[in-house]
Every structure is written in C-alpha cells, then in structure tokens.
Amino acid sequence: MKADKHTRNYMLGHLKEMISEERWQKFHHILDLRTRYLTVVLEDIFQPHNASAVIRTCELMGIQDLHIIENRNIYETNRDIVVGSDKWINMHKYSKSENNTLQCFTKLKGKGYKIVATTPHKDDSLITELPLDKKTAIVFGTEGDGLSETAIEHADAFVKIPMYGFTESYNISVSAALCLYELTGRMRREVKNWQLSQQEKDILLLDYALKSIKNPKTFVHRMKMELGLT
User: Fold this and answer.
1) How many other C-beta atoms are found inside a 10 Å radius of the C-beta of residue 39?
2) What's CA 94's distance to the chain center, in Å?
3) Helices marked H in 160-215 — which ranges?
C-alpha cells in the first residue's frame, strides 16, 4: 500500500495492537532477510506447477520482487503449490507492451540491474562464477524453447548450471532453486548492502500487517477517515 510516512506510522500503531507480538517480531525478522539486490525474471512461463514453484522458492530465499513477462503465455499458478507465498512478495507483470521483454529489461536496467540470462552461450560462465558486483536480475525462459532472441540480445551476461548427466536441461523450477540457493548464499557472505532500506522495510511492514488482519480495506478506510484523508 502507498502511504506517506505519517499515515504509515499511524496505521502501524493501530495494527500492532491487533497482531500478536510473536507475529510482529516475525515480520521484522523476515524483513531483515529480504533483498532486492537479486531479483528474478520469468519470460513466458506457462505451466502452473513451475510458475508456483518459482514463487515459493523466491519467497523462501528472501527475494522480494518477481518480474513476469507475458508475451505469448499467461502466467498462472497452482494454489496447492504456491501455498500463500505469493502474498508476501511483489510480482510485477509485463503484458501490455508491444515488446514486454524489452520493457522489463529497460525498467530493470534503469534501476541499476545487470540482466543475466540463464542459457548456454559462447560467453557464459557457471552460476558459481557469476560476479555479484552489482544488483542482478536472473532471467529464466519458457519450458522447452528457453529465452527469446530479444532476451538473449539484450542480456548483459549469461550463466549455466553444471550438469553431469545425459539429460539436456533442468526443469525451470529446479533451475531457479539451484541458482537462487547459490547466489543468495554468496550475496549474504560477500555483498555489503544487500538488505532493504529502512523505508522499504517500513512500507513492506505495513503491507505484511494489512495482509494479516480481517477486512484490511475496511481498516484502511477507517484510518483514512480518522486522518481526514477521505
């Protein structure tokens, strides 16, 4: 929810009285482990099982943002697999542009992200060797076809995951899990400023708290009435 600092603090003061201290502390603990230094981009993923598994992995690995490109395929989830993990992260969809992949990449590069494509390429490196010297967006392509030519053309770097068998590639959800396990671990050990800013934490704290009460829209309306904002 978008709100200025005064409104946010006013709401949080009331919400704290409605939520157990244990859960409140859980919010703060999770927020201390959340990051936007790494983010994930999915291009045209269409199988609900894979879509849901990646969301769940992102949430568990502390990734706050997931970027979803819908050029040909609609991104659908399986509620039994996602098990509510989608409500704790921010999902950004790109589906209305003539070239949604380019729109997504341009937005991320404007925020300082290096675009890293997960695909075999002559200039690729192993995921274990990928430098984390700047904010990084890891891009995964559709099941079967992989990344589009646009994604490959506009990527800044390429990585591959080690494979030691006959099979050609990992399942997309497994690829995401392997990459994030490797990168989030190294990020926490090697990168200094990987955590959210205090303002980002405050904004997400309000979002988390609102998602933990009954009738959040009614609560927000009442708070705005009290503040004279409606």
Assistant:
1) 22
2) 14
3) 172-190, 198-210
Which is more confident, 65 or 49?
65
Exposed/middle/buried for residue 38 (C-beta within 10 Å: 0-12, 13-18, 19+): buried
pLDDT reported for residue 198: 94
Domain 36-194 sits in CATH 1.20.120.1200: no
CA 92 to chain centre: 8
| AA identity, residue 139 | V
Contact call for residues 35 and 187 (beta carbons, < 8 A): yes
- The half-sphere exposure of 61 on its side-chain side, counting CA atoms within 13 A, is 27
Question: Which has the closest alpha carbon to 115: 34, 103, 203?
Answer: 103
The 90-94 sheet, strands edge to edge: 90-94, 65-69, 38-43, 136-140, 114-118, 157-160, 125-126
Helix (H) / strand (E) element for 214: namely none
The CA distance from 45 to 141, in Å, is 7
The mean per-residue pLDDT over the stretch 31-39 comes to 98
Confidence category of residue 1, pLDDT binned at 50, 70, 90: low
Residue extent(s) of CATH 3.40.1280.10 domains in the chain: 36-194
CA quadruple 107, 108, 110, 115: dihedral sign: negative
Task: Assess contact for 30 and 4: CB atoms under 8 A.
Answer: no
Structure tokens, 113 = 């992200």
pLDDT score of 25: 96
DSSP letters, 175-186, are: HHHHHHHHHHHH
